[in-house]
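Here is the promised in-class demo. Please do not try to memorize the tokens; focus on the logic of going from shape to residues.
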């Protein structure tokens, strides 16, 4: 009679049988539906119930079932609700319902089963840059607890491993036959070491060579497999036909096999569809966790940046205070210098008059600009006054060449940047040097950068000073070797105005002399 019913279904529905499953209570045959574009289809099967047989109570976790009577009367129970399913009658088994059936007649009965998974809605897609390490995220979001709740929900063993095959869940939750298989390294499933398996990027229902069935769903982010979520680890057959190695750790492989939970194909199929979305949701949860971690890092860095700016502001405030303290009635000073220069000119002391005018002009330009940016062209106006004073003071001691590209004249720099570098060359570089000093001031553009160089042929800066400049970071680092030469002050002011968009180096040249170089990213 079974064959007659099966043939009748095939002929009437014009569907092929794709798989079957045999139970103590009967048989079930799954039919091939035509594929569509939905991606999620119901499963259709024909169930044959043996005379006087009954199916044990089970819960419909994650799927609903519509049943249609084909032959005879099969009695179904759903949460104590009785459904007498005769030929042509339709019944409904709800998701989460407790279901069992019985054939109380002396002949086989048959019914059509249509099962559709109840799939949770996925989380919204979240973009993510950078790498995610599954082990770190598992700890951060307590992934082990989430997996345990999932196991309880689907009533199956659930595993979580990273891409290298390391377990992130308790391996002892696996059935005895799987634990022995892992110990002996005899299996062919994804739970084995990465070198013994092939990574795959799609979900699949896997039947191992020892007859254990499981769903294996990968975690994929940015095209990279991070690990695998597994579920099931039960048997779908009442017969043990697989070969077991002689050295297998389980004393009785057959006994261990029959200790496995029996998995109904409908249940496994519905869990497979649910698991794919659970995997995607967990991946998005990991991404959210990593984004929160990145945001925390950003907040910490922001606080540190604000602290650094506060220290810089304090330093500038102190510098301004010292500068203001050094101004003793500047208007009186200007008037006095102008009186001296006028008197010197009247007495025929032209050099003294020029020196006094230069000093007056230098002070006038300096006052009020300690905290501002100036153009290179403006800085050069008082650099020339300063050089005139120094060349008058040290005649024939050094010569100066200034080479500034026109495109650099409007570039802004902190006040007295070039001035301090020139002063260091004259007072320190040319000190105790027999030959005439040569000082070259250059400013030019290269690619997207503006470059300022002060080059002298003096005694050369000490190497430890160059090293100290390279280690400057704008924090509390204050090397004693930089005190008294204004170098750190230049760095701090460049840092204040240009942030990370500059480099500042001072080096002793092999041929002799010193090169101070500032590169501004414009």
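The designed amino acids, position by position:
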């Amino acid at each position: 009679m079974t064959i007659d019913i099966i043939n009748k279904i095939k002929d009437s529905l014009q569907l092929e049988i794709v798989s079957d499953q045999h139970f103590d209570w009967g048989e079930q045959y799954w039919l091939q539906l035509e594929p569509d574009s939905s991606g999620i289809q119901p499963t259709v099967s024909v169930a044959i119930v043996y005379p006087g047989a009954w199916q044990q109570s089970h819960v419909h976790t994650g799927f609903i079932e519509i049943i249609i009577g084909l032959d005879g009367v099969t009695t179904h129970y759903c949460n104590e609700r009785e459904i007498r399913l005769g030929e042509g009658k339709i019944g409904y088994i709800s998701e989460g319902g407790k279901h069992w059936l019985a054939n109380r007649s002396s002949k086989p009965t048959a019914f059509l089963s249509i099962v559709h998974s109840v799939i949770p809605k996925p989380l919204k897609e979240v973009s993510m840059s950078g790498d995610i390490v599954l082990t770190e995220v598992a700890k951060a979001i307590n992934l082990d607890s989430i997996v345990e709740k999932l196991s309880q929900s689907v009533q199956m063993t659930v595993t979580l491993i990273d891409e290298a095959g390391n377990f992130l869940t308790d391996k002892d939750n696996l059935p005895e036959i799987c634990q022995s298989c892992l110990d002996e390294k005899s299996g062919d499933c994804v739970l084995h070491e990465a070198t013994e398996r092939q990574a795959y990027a799609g979900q699949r229902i896997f039947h191992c060579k020892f007859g254990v069935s499981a769903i294996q769903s990968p975690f994929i982010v940015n095209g990279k497999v991070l690990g695998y979520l597994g579920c099931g680890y039960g048997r779908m057959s009442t017969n043990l036909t697989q070969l077991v190695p002689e050295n297998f750790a389980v004393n009785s492989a057959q006994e261990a096999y029959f200790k496995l939970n029996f998995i109904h194909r409908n249940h496994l199929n519905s869990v497979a569809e649910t698991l794919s979305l659970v995997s995607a949701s967990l991946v998005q949860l990991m991404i959210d966790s990593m984004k929160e971690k990145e945001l925390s890092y950003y907040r910490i860095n922001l606080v540190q940046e604000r602290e650094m700016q506060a220290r810089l502001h304090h330093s500038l405030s102190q510098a301004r205070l010292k500068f203001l303290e050094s101004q003793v009635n500047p208007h009186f000073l200007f008037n006095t210098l102008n009186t001296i220069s006028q008197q010197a000119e009247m007495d025929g002391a032209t050099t003294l008059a020029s020196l006094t005018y230069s000093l007056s002009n230098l002070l006038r330009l300096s006052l009020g600009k300690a905290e501002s940016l100036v153009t290179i062209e403006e800085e050069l106006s008082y650099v020339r006054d300063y050089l005139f004073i120094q060349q008058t003071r040290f005649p024939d001691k050094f010569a100066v060449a200034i080479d500034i590209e026109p495109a650099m004249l409007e570039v802004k720099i902190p006040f007295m940047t070039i001035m301090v570098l020139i002063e260091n060359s004259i007072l320190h570089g040319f000190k105790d040097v027999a030959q005439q000093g040569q000082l070259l001031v250059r400013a030019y553009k290269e690619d997207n950068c503006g470059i300022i160089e002060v080059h002298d042929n003096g005694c050369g800066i000490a190497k430890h000073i160059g090293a100290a400049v390279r280690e400057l970071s704008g924090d509390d680092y204050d090397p004693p070797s930089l005190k008294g030469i204004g170098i750190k002050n230049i760095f701090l002011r460049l840092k204040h105005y240009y942030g990370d968009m500059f480099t500042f180096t001072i080096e002793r040249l092999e041929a002799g002399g010193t090169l101070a170089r500032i590169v501004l990213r414009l």
